[in-house]
Amino acid sequence: MNVALALGLGLAAGAVGTVVLTVSETIEQRFTGRENSTVPGQVGAALPGKKGDEAAAQKLNTPVHWAHGITMGAARGALGLTGLGPVAATAVHYAVVWGGDVTLYRSLGIAPWPWKWQKQELATDLFHKGAYAIATGITFKLLRNAAT
Questions:
Q1: In a designed cystine with 132, which of 21, 33, 40, 57 is the match (CB 3.0 to 4.6 A)?
Q2: How far apart are the first and last CA of the chain?
Q3: Three-state secondary structure string covering the chain
């Protein structure tokens, strides 16, 4: 498989993973009463230097959520070129997505390091990012099999 195809399939898989992430969060929020996360919008506002601009964060929340999920699928596509098996590649993808997010949030001053998070907040984040990584990995494998 060539690089362009792997990255393209990864982007498509990332879109499916983002759908699964969004659905899992929606279901969980209905049961727990947790408010929708504003972290994607906060990241989107902070990157161009508008940290703390609540209007910008609100406007950017959904687009950044989707753009991030889809583009991180490209990382899963790239992992498909490494020779790792599907389970190992998905595990690495999960670590890259979750670890990258945590590092970005901390570096932008949006969130503390995860060991300072409440247990429920940490478990919720790990669960939803896991749902994303698994769905993205399964979708990538199916798309790759169909393309080759």
A1: 21
A2: 8
A3: CCHHHHHHHHHHHHHHHHHHHHHHHHHHHHHHCCCCCCHHHHHHHHCCCCCCCHHHHHHHHHHHHHHHHHHHHHHHHHHCCCCCCHHHHHHHHHHHHHHHHHHHHHHCCCCCCHHHCCHHHHHHHHHHHHHHHHHHHHHHHHHHHHHC
Place of tokens 């690495």: 92
The owner of tokens 């996360």 is 37
Nearest-angstrom CA–CA distance, 148 and 129: 28
pLDDT of residue 57: 84
Please answer whether residues 42 and 57 qualify as being in contact, where contact means their C-beta atoms are separated by less than 8 angstroms: yes
CB-based contact 14:79 (threshold 8 Å): no
> Residue 130 class from Cβ within 10 Å (0-12 exposed, 13-18 middle, 19+ buried)?
middle
Q: What ranges do the domains of the chain cover?
A: 3-147
In one-letter notation, the amino acid at residue 81 is L
Residues of the chain where predicted confidence (pLDDT) is lower than 70: none
